[in-house]
Protein 1
Amino acid sequence: MLEVAPDLIGATLMFDGVGGRIVELEAYHHTEPAAHSFRGPTPRNAVMFGPPGFAYVYRSYGIHWCLNFVCEPEGSAAAVLIRALEPTVGLPVMRRRRGVADVRLLCSGPGRLCEALRITAAHNGLALDQPPFALFARTGAVEVVRGPRIGITKAVDKPWRYGEKGSRFLSKPFSDPSS
DNA sequence: TGCCCGATTAACT
DNA sequence: GTTAATCGGGCAA
């Protein structure tokens, strides 16, 4: 899972005709208390305990939706939270859905990203390589930076947040002094 | 059955 | 910098 996470930076995620490059994500694993899967399978997180390559969507703070990719090995309940995209396709559609003009605010956050792509609980458990999802590996080299995860209160020390170095589309900048 | 809290965001002081 | 919005899951009673 920790090997897969940085490889997804720079990959392109498409959903129902719109999407962009993944520039930020966080890894979660059932052995650490910050993960939803920490306390074992439940109706909500059942997807995480299934095979890899599927989407786990959950409601955050009763308001937003957040998208995860289930990672291998199967049964480890590992997942990566997609935190930010660099929008590349369907800009007008995303702008209309989000109600903002600034491209950098379209997908720079897990809740924003789902609103822009219109991802909801209806898409929980769908395969990432089947419509309406589509996932393309990155083509060129990408500089990946790592840091502590955001917005959680447990296991804050684990540096399992990954992002593209210097990207303008991160939900928050990395505190990497060399960037 | 009830209570507390969160892998968030946007608006407001 | 602070706080409201808003709801389902997880845990205590």
Protein 2
Amino acid sequence: MPELPEVETVKNGLKPIIGSKLKGFIVHKDGWRKPVPVDKLTAQIGKPITDTYRRAKWPALVFEDGCLWMHLGMSGQIRLFNSDKNLPPLEKHDHIELFFEDGKVIRFKDERRFGIVAWTDHPYSEPPSSEKLGPEPFDPEWDDSYFYKQLSQYKTPIKPFIMNAKIVVGVGNIYASEALFLARISPLKPANTLTKHDAANLRGKIIQVLQAGIKGGGSTLKDHRMANGEIGDYQNSHTVYGKEGRPCVVCGTPIVKITQATRSTFYCPSCQSD
DNA sequence: CTAAATACCTGATGGC
DNA sequence: TGCCATCAGGTATTTA
């Protein structure tokens, strides 16, 4: 599911858990890419959630002395139930359950198990990403001159470039194609060939599509769910992603699908010509 | 150092 | 109906 808008939607939907104290948990299935931090979580029993948080595509439950991260991988869902009475039956890939003293329950489901459950000491710490993460797209630190300077240093095609979390976090395969379409920039264009005007334009469109995605509750292609189980809406606003062969909404030219860095890219070869 | 390829895992879909 | 190949929101690790 999860690019920035989907993770932000999940994080916001988990807000009602703030103030609830952890009562216990069950790991129905372990054997993830990283082991579930059972000892760290056990140490939090009796302690309250103080906030919910997001950094890049990592959502977290914040405790007084650390963060429980639940990265959603490609197919993860985090569901919040207000009462342990009349809980729906456990589903096949509900792998972890958190129980709270007030009866609330959080279930982490992940069919493909590309997700990661991890603990870091200190609230609002950086997530356990393997590489140092770049700036948040909505952070004023990520401005036009910073972005342009980054662009000028690499010849990587712009589409995989903006998906690189070292450059800016949160942009995944859907929103990268959508932002480039709005900016009328070819996904194949080398990063260092963008002008200052292109950079400012693209930065604005990235922010625009991410904000619109959040407003729409994220894009549900298959797995994305809000914390209350509802699907997102923003897939209905996609202009190019998944639209291969369909007419461009601007000029009518059929949308083309190509592969870049092993990922599908969709674009209008007319509006987004080199 | 960068950049590209591969691996991780389950399930849906389409061709034959 | 079955079997095989391909593809899917991401990222950590390996290979060049």
